[in-house]
Predict the 3D structure of the following.
Amino acid sequence: MMNIPCPFCGPRNESEFSFGGPLKPDRPDPNATDDEQWVGWLTEVPNPHGPVQEKWWHVKGCGTWFTIWRDTRSHDIVEGPLDAG
Amino acid sequence: MQVNRLSHGGRINRARALSFTFNGRKYQGFEGDTLASALIANGVSLTARSFKYHRPRGIVGAGVEEPSTLVELMGNDASANRPVTTVPLKEGLIAKSVNCWPSPAVDIGAVNQLFARFIPAGFYYKTFKWPNWHVYEPSIRKATGLAGTPQEAPDQGHFEARYAHCDVLIAGAGPAGLLAALTVGRAGLRVMIADEGTEAGGSLLSRKLVIDGQPAMDWVAATVAELHDMPNVKHLQNATIWAYREHNYLMVNERAPENASLLERHWRVRAGHVITATGAIERGMVFGNNDRPGVMLASAVQTYVNRYGARPGKRAMIFTNNNSAYAVAADLAAAGIEIVAIVDSRDDVPEVARAVVPDLEVVAGSVVTQAQGLRRVRGVSVVPRSGGVSRTYSCDLLAHSGGWNPAVHLFSQSRSPLIYAEGPATFVPDTPAQSVSACGAAEGQFELSAALHSGAETAAELCEGPALTPPEGEDLAYAIEPLWRVEQATGKAFLDLQNDVSVDDVHLAIREGYANVEHVKRYTTGGMGIDQGKTGNINIIGTVALHQGIGMDEVGTTTFRAPYTPVSFGAIGGFRDESVVLPYRHTPLTKWNMDQGAFMYEAGARWRRPGYFPHPGEGLQEATNRECEAVRNGVGVYDGSPLGTFELKGRDVGKFLDYLYTNIMSSLKPGFGRYGLMLSDDGLILDDGVCLRLDEHRWIISTSTGHADAMNSHMEELLQTEFPDWNVFVTTVTSQWNNATICGPKARDVMVELGTDIDLSPEAFPFMTFRDGHVAGLPARVVRVSFTGELSFEVNVAPRHLRALWDKVLDAGSPHGILPVGSEASHVLRVEKGFLSLGHEVDGTVDPFDLGMGWVMSKKKADYLGKRSVHLRRDGPGVRRELVGVIPDPDRMIPEGAPLTPRGEKRPTEGFVTACVWSVVHKRWVGLALLENGHARHGETAQVRLKGGELIPVRVTPPVHYDPDGEKLRT
C-alpha cells in the first residue's frame, strides 16, 4: 500500500487513488503524423526499470489528476526532473 | 494427571485448572499454558505424524517456530493447521492432530515409511506424469492430509479492522524492544509496540536472568507499567506484525483483543520508522532420526521448564555447538531434571560455558549421529568427530541447539538486504531499504547486555538528546562454531521437519540440477509450509554450501515473504464483506419491486434491478413475453434511473463533446438531443448515449449503466490532463435525476391521463427533444428518447418524487393494461430493434462501421478521439466482422456466444451470435450476430456450430427485426 502525495490532500493511501498509467508524450496531431508514428504513440508506453512519471487520480478524495515519479524497482516516490509537468 | 508438571515455578496460574480434549482424550492444564505446554505437562509426547512419511512426531519448539505438531481446533475455535505451541489453552478447547488418521498412535498412513525411497524430493514433479497429474492428485492430497478449512464462520464474535499511524512502530517487546519503546516514548514520539506473545518479555520469559540486580521480569513489569502510563504509546500483546509492505505500511494481527466480542483485530499501520526487535529463533542440529518425539530445541525445553513448570523429560542429553545450551542445562538441572551429558561438537569448549555447569559431563569434539527409539527417544549414539567408537547414552529427552538466527523476516520483507556474519554464524540485517532498523537479537546481539544497549542506541537515533543509559543485564557470553549437519549421521537426517526434507533430498536436488537455493526450496519444498522453515532454512543453506564448496554468503537466503506467521482470512477481511466493499446501488423503487415479487438481478455497476415480474406460477419466459407484448401493443413502464447521467457546464462543452463523440454535438440547439458514440483513441467503442442541450452552456449526457464510472474517469482525465484550459465542469447527476419511462403505442394516452402542462403533440414535442414542465403535478423533465423502439416518454423527476410518480403512472395506465417492465423484456425489445448493447454487440474489436453506423463518424471534424485509428484499421487488409440479424431455421433458441463457422465445418469461426431472444412480434426466435463480411451476406444461410458439432442453420438478415424505418418511435 503506497503512500501517495496528492498535491491538494497530502499523503494518502494508495487505495484512494486510481492508476492512470505512465505519462506518454503529448498526443501528436493525427493529421500530421504517418501511420507508424501514430501507432507508436498509441502503443508504446514507458516501462523503465527505474523512475517513471505516472498519472494518478485521487478518485476517492479530491478528484484531482496529477503525476508522480515512482521508481519501479522499489516503489519509492522520487524527485523528477525539473521540467516534470 | 499432570504427571510432568513441576511442583512449583512457571508463569501459570495453578489456582485455575482448565479442561481440554486432545485427539478425543480429556486432559487438564492451567491458565497460562499453551496447548503444547499442557500436553507436555500431561506426558503426551507422541502428538503428530509427519507430512510425507507419517513418521511419529512430538513437540519440537515452544513458539511460532514449531515445525512438527500442527493441530486442528474444533467447535467455535474452528481453525486448521495451528502450530500447537501457539494455541493458548482455554476451558473446553478441543483439538486434534493433523496428518494422521485415526490418531498419531494408530496411523494408517504410517505405511508410507516403508515406501520412503520411492517418494524422494520432487516426486510430485517427476513420478506422476502419465496419464496426467490429476489422476493422482486426490489420493496424494488425502494422504498428505493437512486439515481442511473450517466450513462455517464462528457463531460468536466478529473480526475488526483498524488503521493506525505512528512515528515509530516497534516489533517485539523483549528486552531490546522494550528499551527502545521507553527511549522513544520518553522523547514524546507517537509509538506503537506490538508483540506476538501473550505477555511482554520475549526471551526473558523463558530464562532466569537478572537486570540491575533484580529478576529480569521485574524490570519488564516496571517498563511495561511506565509505557502504559504514556499517552503517546500504544502497546499491543498477542499482536503479530506479519507483513512489511512498501512505504512503511505494516500489517498487525491482534488476537484476543480486550473486547470479548472480538475474535481478532487487524491493524494496518503506516509508520514513520520501524524498529524490528523481533528476537532470534534457535535452529536445530541435523543428525539421524532428529525428528523423534523427545528430540527438542534446547530453548524450547528451557521455556517449558522455566515458563510453564512443565518437564519434557526426566533424563536429558544436550547436543550443541554453542554456549547457549549450557544455560539451558543449568536451568534443567536446577529444576531437578537429570542431565546425562552435554555433547559439544566443538573441540574447545569455552571456560565460561563450562563454568555454568561445572558438575556435568561435557563430551567435547563429538556429535550425536542418531537418536534411538521410535515413538520416543530412548537414547543417542555419540561419536567423536575425529573418528572412533560410537557410544550410546540412554535418555528420554534430547535438547539440541545449532545456534541462533535473528528473526530477520520483517527486516527482509522491507526489501532490506541481509549479510552473512561469520562471528555469530548467521545472516544479519544489512543496509535498510526503507526507514527501518533492527536491534537486539534481531540484529545479532544475542547477549542480554548487548541487546539492551542496541535497543537504547537504535531508538536514540530517532530522537534528540543522548541515549538512555541501559540497565545492566548479566548473561552468558555467546560463542559458536557452526555445524550445518552431522556428516556421520545414520538414518534420515531432517533439515525441514514440517515437509520431511532430509539432507539426502537436498543432495538429490543439487545432483538433478536444482542447485540455486531458490530452486532447492521449490524442488524439495524445504522451507515452505506453515513454519516457513524458521528452524531449518539456514541448515539447508549450509548443506548446499558444504556440498558445493562455496560460502554461505554465496548461497544466500531464499526470499522472506509475508505472512511471518499464518493469518486467518477473517482477520484480513474484517467487516469488509461483499455488501460493504461492493454495496448494491438502489433506486427508490427497490422495495416496491421486491414487494411485487420481482426477480431481482444485479445489472451493471451493482445496480439492483428487476429482471421480470412473474405472476404466480409463471417462469421467466412467460413473464417476459407478457411484458414485451404490453410494450409492443399497449403500454409499459420501466425505471430507467440507473442510466449514467452527467451534467456538463461551461463555455467549451460543445468543443469538448465534439472531441469526445464521433459526431458533431456542438450544433445541437437547446431543447434538442442527439445520439452519439464515444471511441477511445485506439478506435474502440467506449460507450454510447444521448446528449441533451439545456441551454448555451449546459448539457446533459447519458452513458450506459455499467460504464458510468469509467466515463466519469475518462472525461475528468481529458479535462484535467489534456485540456486544463477548457472551461468545462462535469457533475455526476445519475442519482439526482430518476425516471419512469413510459413506452408503447398508448404512452401518449397515459401521459394525457397523468396530466401535464407540456404539449405532447408530435409536432410540438418531436422525437429527440425534451421539455421541462410538470407531470402529474410533479416538476419534471420529459425526454423523447426510445430504447424499445416504441413511442416513449422518459419522465425525469427528483428521486424523492419517483415513487409517487410511479404509482400515478400505474394508475393512469391501468385502463390500458400498463405493466412494469424488467431487464429481460428490455433486452428482448432492444434485440428486436437491433439496438446495440455494450458487452454484447460491442466487444472491443468492433468499430462503428461494423455496426452499420458509419454515418455517426463525422467527416467534417478534423479530429476527434478514435478517428485516426478507425480509418487506419479499416484501410488495412483484415476482414471485418459486421453486425447482422440471424433467424434460426428451424426455429429454436441459439445460445448466446455460439460460434458461426464457414459452412458449419470444424474450422476457425467467422463470427458469433451476440444475442438471441423470443420475439413477441414475429412469434419466433430471432438473434443478432457479428459475422465476417456480414453486410454483404444478407439473405445467405450461415451455420452456427455448437460444441459437439451440432449445426443450426441461420438466415442472415439486416440487424433490425422490427420497424426498420423507425416510424413507431417517432409517432
Remarks:
- The longest strand of chain A covers residues 51-57.
- The beta strands of chain A are 3-6, 10-13, 18-22, 51-57, 65-71, 77-78.
- Chain A touches chain B at residues 1-3, 13, 18, 20, 27, 29-31, 35, 38-39, 42-43, 55, 57, 59, 63-65, 74-75, 77 (CB under 8 Å).
- Chain A is about 10% helix and 35% strand.
